[in-house]
Amino acid sequence: MTNKEFGLNDVVEMKKQHPCGTNKWQIIRMGMDVRIKCLGCERSILIPRREFTKKLKRILKKAENED
Questions:
Q1: Using an 8 Å Cβ cutoff, are 14 and 55 in contact?
Q2: Which tens digits make up the pLDDT trace of 8-41?
Q3: Domain count of the chain?
Q4: Does 50 map to a domain?
């Protein structure tokens, strides 16, 4: 299994699409659980980090780092 490095505000693609029809999500909170927001309908869900890493397909866009 490959190690997928994801961070806050990254745009990711999940294995299953959301009922609204889109498959793009933005990570808006990280911790023991990860909160992601659907970029189609703006709904957010909170899922355990372990489940999130299983369901993550790929990272579409990394967040801009502000130094």
A1: yes
A2: 999 999 998 889 989 999 999 999 999 999 999 9
A3: 1
A4: yes
